[in-house]
Every structure is written in C-alpha cells, then in structure tokens.
Structure prediction request, 104 residues.
Amino acid sequence: MAQPIELVRKRMSPLSEHPDPGMAIYEFLEELQDHGVLDLLRGLTVTGSEVITMLAKAANTPEVISTMRNAIVLLKLFSSAGRTWRQVGAVAYGLRVFGRKLLS
Prediction:
C-alpha cells in the first residue's frame, strides 16, 4: 500500500512550494485506507440507497412517528418557554423598579 504514496511524494515534491500539507493529507488518507475506513465509506456509497430505504421504512412506524411528533412538541414548548421566562423576568424587573420609585 505504501507504493502509491511514495509515487505521490516523488511527484508532489518538485511541483509544490510547500509539500508538507499535501503529504500530511496523503498520509492521513493512507491511514484511513490501512484501517479500512475508506472501504467502509465506499461500501456505504454503493449501498447508500439501500440504507436510506431501510431508514425510511423504520421511520414509517407508528412508534417513530409519535416519537417525532412528541419531540417537535417539546422543542416548541422549550422555545416558547424561553420567551415566556424573558417576559416574566422583564415584568419582575419592572415591578422592582416601580416599587423602588414608590418607596423613595
């Protein structure tokens, strides 16, 4: 596996003013290849449509649909709660300021 990398090194060195970043990328790719990550990614791209189809089928169950709906409701609740708490804080601040003015 090191032979293609050596060929790239020989060809890149005279062409580039700074071959180190380019070589770091190629060495990183070599590590990914040695650990099988590139093969995994290649396999996922080949079977990508099958994976998406399986995910779509899994997401089309009543349990998953209700879970997604519940998550959306919770997100809406939490996003509106932030505004409500800011409004409550503003009212409380206004009451404190008003109370201080009355007492002074």
